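Quick one: structure tokens for this chain, please?
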Amino acid sequence: MQNFNILRFMLRCQGEILITVQGISMYPVLHENDKVVVVQSESYDIGDVVVFDYDEPLLVIHRILIK
């Protein structure tokens, strides 16, 4: 949860942050070491790519498939 709290704080202060992709779970859309701009949103839709706190210290990037 520590990393996600830091992420939330940085989003409030800066409005957006840049993170680096690690792993291949979003291949072929995102590749290892790609840079992703993260912005906070009030709502999310199917097809959106989101970052969430999965299991400390991991932040996970995935596409929303169902609501």
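The chain is about 20% helix and 35% strand.
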